[in-house]
């Protein structure tokens, strides 16, 4: 009985420490996605319109530690991008995209609500090699609520009294700031096959915006550096090997995700393609973090991805290995273009 009690107390203690730590650390860290390969504009502005689609819609939902701790973290991301072809040149095209992010966490409902506009320029070196540069910028509001928080000065000497003043004097419960980012991407593809590769780097929060709630304080959001690779190897007519790797650095924080899958095409009839993908990833830092199995369904213009983080870090004693689910949805529109418009600039 004592052993069970000790284990339970330890779990709750670690959960409380984790919540308090993340309440403090979150202002200096961006949200993250296990299926980063399905939210390209969040990884690099230079991935804007780098796709076979002419118009692309994508969205993601992530629930961090759902059913594991008191206040799970919830994240939504949405994006839309499109290609813009020049009339008299077939060696390049432009990309334009918009994205939004909503992320809320903890008992204070500490959250970010932001939107960005992205623009890219893709140049075709030849039919199989493309280089893209991209820029992104926008604004975000960071806010929190006091309703569910308690403070030391609300203890009257015997018990907690929510009617007592908090003793805190925040200048504002919300702060708006601007964001700037940019990146570069290389896209390679094998003509007549599904084999392709994207590799690139991006930097976000280049302007180091101040996100402090006290007007007299300075709390600069650290720049986030993103490095990634997304190879896709066609093994046979009906089988592909998708691979992915990501490393992100933001101030003192580091995250890396690497994984692979097997994609099997059940139908290859044009406009009726059907494929199923099964795979997994591992997110790690200095101590390891999560094992992430994933399942994807592809039907012509639609793609749906499901994944679940199985927490294997030291915090698993509190989360019971339940990291949380993630769902991504993508819809693509490909227009039929005259042959004189696609002599070189076509991504497969």
SSE blueprint:
Blueprint: H1 2-25, H2 40-43, E1 55-64, E2 73-84, E3 92-105, E4 110-124, E5 129-143, E6 174-189, E7 196-204, E8 224-234, E9 239-250, E10 253-267, E11 274-284, E12 290-299, E13 302-311, H3 316-319, E14 322-333
Antiparallel strand pairs: 1-2, 1-14, 2-3, 3-4, 4-5, 5-6, 6-7, 7-8, 8-9, 9-10, 10-11, 11-12, 12-13, 13-14
Oligomer: single chain
Give the tally of structural domains.
1
User: What integer is the average pLDDT?
Assistant: 82
CATH class label: Mainly Beta
Write the CATH fold name: Porin
Major sheet strand order: 1-2-3-4-5-6-7-8-9-10-11-12-13-14
Segments where pLDDT lies below 50 for 5+ residues? 1-28
In CATH, the architecture is: Beta Barrel
The CATH superfamily bears the name: monomeric porin ompg
Element order, helices and strands? HHEEEEEEEEEEEEEHE
**How many distinct beta strands?**
14
Gap between N and C termini: 62 Å
Structural class: mainly beta
Number of helical stretches of at least 4 residues: 3
Instruction: Give the overall shape.
Output: globular
Query: What's the main sheet like?
Result: 14 strands, antiparallel, barrel
Global Rg: 23 Å
Portion of residues within helices: under 10%
Task: Please characterize this protein's 3D structure.
This protein has 348 residues and is mostly beta strands. The protein has one domain: monomeric porin ompg (Porin). Helix content is 9%, strand content 49%. It is built from three helices and 14 strands. The protein is globular, with a radius of gyration of 23 Å. The chain starts with a helix and ends in a 15-residue tail after the last strand.
